[in-house]
Amino acid sequence: MNDDITMTEKSHHTSKWIILAAVMTGVIMGPIDGSIVNVVLPAIARDLRCDYSVVQWIPTIYLLAVCSFILAYGRLGDMLGYKKIFLIGLISFAIASLLCGFSQNIWMLIVFRAIQGLAVSMQMALGLAIVTSAFPVHERGKAVGIYGTAIAAGLMLGPVLGGVIAEYLNWHYVFFINVPIAVVAFTWGARVIPSGVRKPGQRLDFYGAVMAFIFLFSIVLYVNRGRDWGWFSSECIIVLLIAIIFGVAFIITERRLAQPMLNLSMFRSRRFSFACLSALISFMALYTLVFLTPWYLADGLGYSVLGVGLVMIASPIVTFFIGPISGTLSDRIGVRGLAFCGMVINAVGLFMLSQLDASAESFDVGWRLAICGLGSGMFMSPINSAIMGSVPPWYHGSASSILAAMRNTGMAFGIAIAGAIVYNLAPATTSGHIALFTGNELDEFLNGLHWAYIGGAALALTAGLIALMAVVRNGTEATDISSGNQ
Fold first, then answer.
1. Whole-angstrom Cα distance, residue 171 to residue 218?
2. Is residue 426 part of a domain?
3. What pLDDT is attached to residue 485?
4. What are phi and psi of 471, to 5 degrees?
5. For a surface tag, which of 95, 128, 252, 456 has the fewest beta carbons within 10 Å of its beta carbon?
């Protein structure tokens, strides 16, 4: 017996839509927290009197913590039940947020931010698994599309809330606002999310979990810090070698075990493998936009923090409305066409952003961002549904955590690629100071921005083409995995 069966049975007593709403309440905190903190980093640096290179560790350590443990949480969810791990994550996130808000120096904040990342990755890893297990197959796309609106809403609210807080309060409140949301989500989730059952005879692959942690931590650290340390510096080479060694060791170990932490048989499904790869590259493209556009608005056009937030909501607000529609359509017409068209539209939006100059108005930026949001909304719901639908129910936790790992690793790679392009073409504007660009600096920056956006467009097209390749012979979509260790 598995969580999927248990949840389907209990849906007679608890509406699947109520379960979805409860999960979305918890999941929304991740994107809010990830996007709101970046807006107030300058304020934190000033208040705690630390260098920009140090304050960068606030988002970096969070991302490292999220990525490093997310696969282990997925396996634990498959073993112990999704509800238990999900609720532990919620209450841990509330406590960590309080600690972050009360931090008195930068090192306290960095440590508590790491704990916050460890907690939020439990929701990221298992939220989609709970939703998928609560809905029948013919409604999966619709449910996943609606679930995706929580992420879009979080990305939409984060910059605006960050701007308001920076304008009228202080940075401590960006962490305090998480607490009431987490408490409500915990209370609601404890009442309505089906408990599932603990599977007898299951155990965690400890060595696999350690190797996965070291691999993911090392690869994300390399990508995130490569520009500052130097891509070919001794530090980066050592970190990259560690990632390669432990990545290979992880694969070898997992193939030999009867109960691996990550069952590699999932990747025998062409649909699953190509959909995961497509998701990874799509988030690289998306975070080219997310990383560069606020920089352009603030330092290139002179917008306030609140002004940046208000313009940036153009993309997620369109995704918010398009995601459920695209998910519902994918239940009827399939995944590949919607996913491909979505990434083509995203590429068009990114290319149009590459044509912006120093005279652009907020509307000029906003409608281009809206096009990108349209493409992302069309793509994400079908591809997420494809990933979750291509594995059997007893692997939903692992599949959900893999998708979350793809998402967060794609974010890190996207930021690194965009930053590397701008840094190499406009080194004077990336020295770490916070000031409005003028003269030659602005020209350099706009040139770097142009090519970085074009790079993002190329990534989006690549993601779309890979989504088209998620088929087997005779042109049909890959069949679900029907066997493997449970």
1. 30
2. yes
3. 44
4. -135, 160
5. 252
Backbone torsions φ then ψ of 477, nearest 5 degrees: -70, 155
pLDDT tens digits, 110-166: 999 999 988 988 888 888 888 888 888 788 777 877 887 777 777 777 877 887 887
d(CA 239, CA 187): 41
Written as one letter, the residue type at 225 is R
Give the structural domain span for 242: 206-256
Q: Which two tokens stand for residue 403?
A: 């998708």
Closest CA to 393 of 27, 135, 123: 135
Q: What is residue 111's predicted lDDT score, i.e. its pLDDT?
A: 92
Confidence band, pLDDT 50/70/90 cuts, at residue 28: confident
Q: What pLDDT was estimated at residue 201? A: 60
Q: How many CA atoms lie within 13 A of 113 on its CB side?
A: 23
pLDDT over 60 (residue 280): yes
Task: Assess whether 304 and 363 both reside in one domain.
Answer: yes
CATH code, domain with 397: 1.20.1250.20
Tokens in use for 386? Answer: 């494809």
| Spatial distance between the Cα atoms of 45 and 58, rounded to a whole number of angstroms | 10
- How far apart (Å, rounded) are the C-alpha atoms in residues 261 and 259? 7
Q: Per the structure, how many domains does the chain have?
A: 2
For residues 150 and 102, the answer to whether their CB atoms sit within 8 Å is: no
Same domain, 345 and 420: yes
Most confident of 292-306, 428-442, 446-460: 446-460
219 and 118 fall within a common domain: no
Q: How far apart are CA 83 and CA 472, in angstroms?
A: 35
